[in-house]
Design goal:
The complex is a heterodimer.
Chain A lengths: L5 E10 L2 E11 L4 E5 L6 H8 L7 E6 L2 E3 L4 H6 L2 E4 L11 H5 L6 E4 L3 E4 L1 H14 L15 H14 L4 E5 L7 H16 L3 E5 L3 H7 L2 E6 L2 E7 L5 H9 L17 E10 L8 E6 L3 E6 L5 H9 L4 E8 L2 E3 L4 H6 L2 E4 L3 H4 L7 H6 L7 E2 L3 E2 L1 H15 L15 H13 L5 E5 L7 H16 L3 E5 L3 H7 L2 E6 L2 E7 L5 H8 L4
Parallel strand pairs in A: 3-10, 3-11, 6-9, 9-10, 15-22, 15-23, 18-21, 21-22
Antiparallel strand pairs in A: 1-2, 1-4, 4-5, 7-8, 11-12, 13-14, 13-16, 16-17, 19-20, 23-24
Chain B lengths: L8 H14 L1 H16 L6 H26 L7 H15 L18 H24 L5 H20 L9 H7 L2 E3 L5 E3 H19 L1 H11 L1 H6 L4 H27 L10 H11 L11 H20 L4 H26 L1
Antiparallel strand pairs in B: 1-2
Helix pairs in contact in B: 2-13, 3-8, 3-11, 3-12, 3-13, 4-5, 4-6, 4-11, 4-12, 5-11, 8-9, 9-11, 12-13, 12-14
Classes of the chains: A alpha/beta, B mainly alpha.
Chain lengths: ~500, ~350
């Protein structure tokens, strides 16, 4: 008998262009909370998805009770006693708690002895028992949509518990919880520990990790760094181990000189109380302002608020002393702001349309003859100019944009925004999903724009990129701006410390 | 220049083959109609051609109207009923002053051009309402137009009292259903020119104006279009209003072509128009569709109907065949999309 309940050894997993896991490992003991830590993109979620059967690993093995085991899909994982509460909850809001918990495995009975039907009475009875077990006092027949996020989380945990799991994976379970709710969650975890369940706890919050976990495994760039007893560690030690990599010279030399303050945001607050609030910052002409923070820090939401795709309840935006009124993206664009969105496929490219259409859509009004007829020659000139300037690789300007590589799509989108000659450029994860070569080209474009006097706000989850490209870095945590770091003083440690400054 | 490739017969054959591969239904129907033409008398006749042109013209105008809705991933189920309402309204207003069975006796005899203006204005209003429901109230187009379809039919029944309307001004009928050419031999119906006119206008709108580009952008990715500064709300409202305009024109023409109108006129035309668009390559997944494609689609669909008629197929079976063609056309279109994924 192994001392471990579940072991993963030498797990590797590649996605096109990225090696997400490189000989990672994880060993779980029964009745212990095992924290899994690492930066965004270190491979924690990927490793868990391999364990849960969502991804197939390229290499490596999983042992359960010392026996070699293959997990084919999430159903199989559940059967083997592994349950997972996802970072992003996926409940069905219009159905009841009971129906959500027993989705796909409803207790059945036979009406009149032969007609199979769902045994609702048993389902709600079992649900009530489960809810009691996770110390939740809800009506099993309540609609999930009427619950708060934390209550939904408890329902998800109840669902995991209902599968009689021996391994429970909690992926950032507290990212949207209040302190009281976190305490309630920890009581449930203690109960489960007492029953001998092995718990994998993924979180960025150091104090929680040190409070709840018994062991800590740290990952970096898909590699296994090591496993330690939690009581041996301190916050500083964890951060050093998480970020401790050398920066290679991946960034162009910047020649931009930040000038006067041109763009100013005051007390900017979302209509959603959980999102960004009381944000103040200034942006200089020709400055690259990096925006750092963990996933869920509301960086994207803040920028979408400034750009008008999200609503705000309070706050003012000034450009060169003049207040801007922005209610929808068109207002922002008309006033010289551009935003390259994070989700290139979801809110960037017009997939089935041509490169020419994609690049000209924001600036069509500039190419009109007699105020109505689009001059295709002018559009073609725009395309050719961008193709040359940014080295966009495309067979022709009529090619559908979805057939280009991610890097080339991104260049087309940058071209779309530059066609409007904006003064302020918001770039949200500009190099996400782009191969290393194209990344450097994008960095050069950004550096060049700043040199031309454009003010740039760049959200990035890659520490290296943030430090390598920014004149100044604004760090956010949980909807608040927790501090600014001058680019020359920036280190991964001081950014991480600000990014984990939870209230 | 790179366009120095010689256009050889082989190149043409290659092009034709790839075009055939991407439009199997069009090819199939073309072959079938040629075969039918050789075996059935009178199929290849000037009369039949003129008939085909007239039928296609009206359907084409409706299909152009609905195409904007389809390209933006919407639909317009109220198209047929809007055509019916326009036909009845036009009929009621264009009745001769001395006609005994006049619907609105208090209304003086009007110029047919004034009638056209009124009908078109009403059509645009209905389209605006559709557009506002869809773009402002965010009701899914399928449901929104299902609702307005029923409402419009109800209004039409109320004001016509479900009675047929006749006694139109002679000039109205003769001017619209007129033709260029001999009565026996080759002729071109005026419908051809009307359809051509709208075809050119729509080609211009779809290819050369901001509105057209915005329409394709919304169909390609509505969120991205909004982020790129497209006023998606206004664009969608304009699209549905334009559609209402086109249905009104079609209804006005249809009443003249039939020489009378009734509330049930244009029944099912929305489905024919949607089918024509789909066969012609307007993608149900949005962002794709050309005016020439729509013309081919509508033409093929009308051809199918005439072929069935000449083959002496029981008219009730027509519905079955048409339905099959619609489903197959969409299935093939979706397959193209899935294959590329």
């Amino acid at each position: 008998m192994s001392e471990y309940l579940l072991e993963m050894h030498d797990v590797s997993k590649s996605f096109p262009g990225v090696k997400a896991l490189d000989h990672a490992q994880l060993c779980l003991r029964p009745g212990k909370v095992h924290a899994l830590m690492g930066e965004n993109g270190a491979g924690k979620s990927t490793l868990m998805k391999c364990m849960f059967g969502i991804y197939k690993m390229d290499e490596g093995e999983i042992l359960i009770d010392g026996q070699k085991s293959v997990i084919t899909d999430p159903m199989d994982a559940l059967k083997k006693g592994i349950a997972m509460v996802h970072q992003e909850l996926q409940p069905i809001p219009a159905r009841t708690i009971g129906e959500n918990i027993f989705l796909g495995r409803y207790p059945m009975k036979k009406a009149l002895g032969f007609i199979p039907m769902v045994d609702h009475a048993k389902m709600y009875e079992d649900t009530a028992k489960l809810l009691k077990k996770v110390r939740m006092d809800f009506d099993p027949k309540a609609k999930v949509g009427s619950l708060s996020v934390s209550q939904m989380q408890s329902v998800e945990i109840a669902k995991a518990v209902s599968a009689n799991c021996r391994v429970l994976i909690l992926d950032e379970p507290t990212s949207s919880l209040t302190q009281n709710e976190v305490d309630a969650l920890f009581r449930i975890i203690e109960d489960l520990k007492a029953e001998g369940v092995a718990i994998v706890y993924i979180s960025h919050k150091m104090d929680e990790i040190l409070r709840i976990s018994d062991e800590v495994t740290i990952m970096r760039d898909g590699h296994y760094i090591g496993t330690w007893e939690a009581k041996e560690l301190t916050t500083d030690m964890i951060i050093t181990k998480m970020v401790g990599r050398e920066l290679k010279n991946l960034y162009p030399i910047r020649e931009n000189v930040p000038g006067d303050v041109v763009f100013k945001v005051e007390d900017f607050t979302s209509i959603n109380p959980k999102s960004f609030r009381h944000v103040n910052f200034e942006l200089r002409k020709g400055e690259i302002l990096g925006v750092g923070g963990l996933v869920g820090a509301q960086r994207t939401e803040l920028m979408e608020g400034l750009f008008g795709t999200r609503s705000h309840s309070a706050g003012k935006i000034y450009y060169q002393g003049k207040e801007l009124k922005i209610n929808r993206p068109k207002d922002a664009i008309d006033q010289g702001i551009a935003m390259l969105t994070e989700d290139r496929r979801g809110s960037g490219i017009l997939g089935v349309l041509s490169i020419a259409d994609n690049i000209s859509i924001s600036s069509l009004k500039k190419y009109l003859d007699w105020n109505i007829c689009i001059n295709s020659k002018k559009v073609e000139n725009l395309v050719q100019e961008n193709v040359k300037k940014m080295a966009i690789k495309t067979p022709s300007s009529k090619t559908q944009i979805k057939s280009l590589s991610g890097g080339n799509q991104q260049k087309v989108l940058v071209g779309r925004w530059l066609a409007n000659n904006p003064d302020v450029l918001i770039l949200d994860e500009p190099t996400r999903g782009i191969d290393v070569g194209a990344k450097y080209e994008i960095y050069c474009i950004i550096a060049d724009l700043a040199k031309q006097g454009k003010s740039i706000i760049m959200i990035s989850s890659e520490m290296g990129e943030l430090i390598g490209m920014s004149d100044r870095i604004m760090v956010m945590c949980d909807g608040r701006v927790t501090g600014f770091v001058e680019g020359k003083d920036a280190t991964q440690e001081n950014i991480m410390a600000l990014a984990t400054q939870f209230e | 220049m790179e366009n120095t490739k010689k256009i050889t017969p082989q190149l043409w054959a290659k092009k034709a083959l790839s075009a055939a591969k991407s439009n199997p239904i069009v090819v199939l129907l073309a072959i079938v109609s040629i075969i039918v033409g050789f075996f059935v008398e009178n199929f290849f006749s000037w009369g039949n051609l003129g008939n085909l042109i007239s039928n296609t013209a009206i359907r084409f105008i409706i299909a152009l109207g609905v195409s904007g809705c389809l390209i933006t991933k919407g639909t317009d189920l109220s198209a047929g009923r809007q055509v019916g309402l326009a036909a009845c309204l036009a009929g009621a207003l264009v009745q001769r002053g001395d006609y005994t069975g006049r619907l609105w006796k208090g209304v003086p005899e009007m110029s047919m051009w004034l009638v056209l203006l009124i009908v078109v204005a009403v059509g645009i209003c209905i389209g605006l309402i559709n557009g506002i429901i869809i773009a402002k109230l965010k009701v899914p187009p399928f449901i929104a137009t299902l609702g307005t379809q029923t409402i419009i039919y109800g209004i039409c029944l109320v004001f016509t009292d479900a009675q047929p309307i006749g006694g139109f001004q002679k000039k109205y009928i003769s001017l619209i259903t007129g033709r260029i050419g001999s009565t026996k031999g080759f002729y071109i119906p005026y419908f051809f020119f009307i359809a051509l006119f709208f075809g050119v206008i729509f080609w211009f709108i779809y290819n050369k104006t901001c509105h057209g580009k915005y329409m394709y952008a919304i169909g390609g990715n509505e969120v991205a279009a909004e982020v790129s500064g497209v006023n998606t709300t206004a664009t969608l409202i304009r699209i549905y209003a334009t559609a209402g305009f086109m249905y009104a024109v079609a209804g006005y023409l249809l009443a003249a072509k039939s020489g009378g109108s009734s509330a049930s006129m244009g029944m099912g035309y929305e489905l024919e128009a949607i089918a024509g668009c789909t066969i012609g390559g307007v993608s149900t997944t949005g962002g794709i569709g050309t005016v020439s494609g729509i013309l081919v689609g509508v033409l093929v669909f009308e051809l199918l109907k005439i072929v069935l008629q000449f083959l002496g197929v029981n008219p009730y079976y027509n519905y079955v065949v048409q339905g099959v063609v619609i489903v197959v056309a969409v299935a093939l279109d979706i397959r193209k999309y899935i294959a590329k994924k």
